[in-house]
Amino acid sequence: MTKMTTKIILPILGGMLLFGATAVPNGGVLYAAPKEDSSTTKAIDAQQEALEIAKAKIKEITGNDYEVVFAGKDQSTMIFKTKNNKSDSILVSSKGEIAHLSLTFSYNDLKETKLQEKLDKAWTELFPNEDEPLQNVTVNMFTGFATEVKASNSKGMIALKDGKLSYGGWYAMEKEISPDALEAADQVLKRIGKGLTKTGRDLKVVVKRPGESSVYGFEYTTNKGKVRIDIEEKSLVPVRISMDENILSNGKKEDYEAEQKKINSLDINKLGKAAKQEAETIMKLDLSGYNVAKSKYQNDVLVFSKKGASDVQVSFTGNGSFHTFLISKYNSIVLPTDPVKL
């Protein structure tokens, strides 16, 4: 015996029929309304909330309402971009915090008066004789680190950390600095040895810090690759030497995993001793009494530390050769003259 099932359809106002929870026109095919997935709704709400957080932070920094778009997700972190600049990136964590922010925009677009005042004051402090207005601004934020703001024009750049002037860069020409600094840099290149022959020299920037001597940043072209040499203005001693790694490897590129295996196999004490000797020879830097350890953040960097003195970082290869010597307090990242690509 076949069982028959009867669906009861009740008439309601307006010539509509009620079927389950869904009202449909008379004569239409009846379907039950699908239930909206609660997890989908929550995801949409979370994305919208993160979007508003990103927009609010941009507004706080720039005073502008840039259009912000969702660009993806990395685990629980929402990634957003702006339509103002293709390189912009804002990451919002699941806790509703800005994990990372990187913005680049024209100084003329800046509507946040406090930041404008800080940038103008910093520029005047470092470059009192340069009246060219600032053109480009970049802002970088990382959780747990100082907020960095850099602004530049064709004459130079300034960098603020948590709103305070950190350093600046002057795009000078060699004829505008002391010839003694040029000679000092040339002598450092000769001490490096390694069969290097100078084919060119370019003064890239003069780094200025409040209350400190300037540092001249030179880039040399040689028969084997490029070498960067930074010279402190008053003492004329090098504070950074950095060379292309292919100068040490004669152009042979090691497989990454093989290189890492070599790096991890090196004896730190022996490596530290060799680094001290080379620092003495090339930089005239005495590292006696410094403790040495591997960097917590980079596997191929030694950090020499001593109470009351700035750390010294030395970068090395799997063959135990050294390509960078840096007195940490002189570290700086100088913007190109026009980083804005709209």
Task: Give a brief outline of the structure.
With 342 residues, the chain is α+β, with helices and mostly antiparallel strands. The protein has helices spanning 38-62, 113-126, 179-192, 245-249, 256-265, 268-283, and strands at 10-12, 16-19, 22-25, 68-74, 77-82, 89-92, 98-106, 136-142, 148-152, 156-161, 164-170, 198-208, 215-222, 226-232, 238-243, 291-294, 301-305, 312-316, 322-327.
Task: List strands and helices in order, with pairings.
Blueprint: E1 10-12, E2 16-19, E3 22-25, H1 38-62, E4 68-74, E5 77-82, E6 89-92, E7 98-106, H2 113-126, E8 136-142, E9 148-152, E10 156-161, E11 164-170, H3 179-192, E12 198-208, E13 215-222, E14 226-232, E15 238-243, H4 245-249, H5 256-265, H6 268-283, E16 291-294, E17 301-305, E18 312-316, E19 322-327
Antiparallel strand pairs: 1-2, 2-3, 4-5, 5-6, 6-7, 7-8, 8-9, 9-10, 10-11, 11-12, 12-13, 13-14, 14-15, 15-19, 16-17, 17-18, 18-19
SS summary, helix count: 6
- Beta content: 25-35%
Outline the low-pLDDT stretches: 1-31, 335-342
Question: How does the helix and strand content classify structurally?
Answer: alpha+beta
Largest sheet: 16 strands, antiparallel
Strand order in the sheet with the most strands: 4-5-6-7-8-9-10-11-12-13-14-15-19-18-17-16
Helix content: 10-25%
Gyration radius over CA? 30 Å
Oligomer: single chain
> In one word, what is the shape?
globular
Nearest-integer average pLDDT: 83
Distance between the termini: 76 Å
